Amino acid sequence: MKKSKEQIVGWVFIILHLVGIAGFSIEATRELFQFLTPFNLLISLGLLLWLHTNRNNQFILLSLLVGLLGYLVEVVGVNTGQIFGNYTYGKTLGFQLWQTPLIIGVNWLMMIYYTSAIAKRITGVLALQIAIGAALMVLMDLLIEPVAIQFDYWTWSGDVIPLQNYFGWFVTALLLHAIYSRIEHTSKNGAAPYLAFAQLIFFAVLNVLRTL
Fold it and tell me: pLDDT, tens digit, for every residue of 99-112?
């Protein structure tokens, strides 16, 4: 039954992101889909956490901590330029506090969750899981950045993505993966790789379409 739920949710992820590709690609619906972006992130994370069968106090506290730290790192980053470089957030990601969308904490937790799940499938060595998870985050960000700029997620000073951004992402992801690795995973969430794949396809296709 659990595997069946994971597969259903997995296909929901894929369908949502395929619809998103169409919505962002069509000028008439682009503004609507930009508005819906925070809701997509909330739904995606909510479904992942719903399928996590060991939702004990440790899991809840560490998940909240990872989301909060991800948000606070962005607050410092966007207001000082010292972590990722000089950037500002646009309107697409919704309500902002301290010039940072609240939903960005959800995005950090979601990405940490699914890259952690993939890393655990690759190796049982904890240190490697943390390093692989952080590396996967950076690889995903390479795809995210051009699309994020195009659709007003955020913009960079001088329209140049600095190498500092990827270094900052890797170090932040290492820290958050190290924290999240303390969760005792008694079950694997089979929907997590589906979400990773759906996001990979979403950003890869939009990157190709913007060059045409």
Answer: 999 999 999 999 99
DSSP label at residue 54: -
* Predicted local distance difference test score (pLDDT) of residue 45: 96
Tell me the average pLDDT across 151-172: 94
- The residue with tokens 């952690």 is 116
C-alpha dihedral, 141 to 145 to 147 to 153, nearest 10°: 110
Which residue(s) pair with 154 in the sheet? 89
Neighbours of 32 (CB within 10 A): 11
Cβ within 8 Å of residue 63, ≥6 positions away: 49, 109, 113, 180, 183
Q: pTM of the entire structure?
A: 0.93
| HSE-CB of 198 using CA atoms within 13 angstroms | 23
- Residue 11 tokens, joined: 């296909």
pLDDT at 163 over 90: yes
- In angstroms, the Cα distances linking 71 to 95, 135, 156, 169 are 13, 20, 18, 13
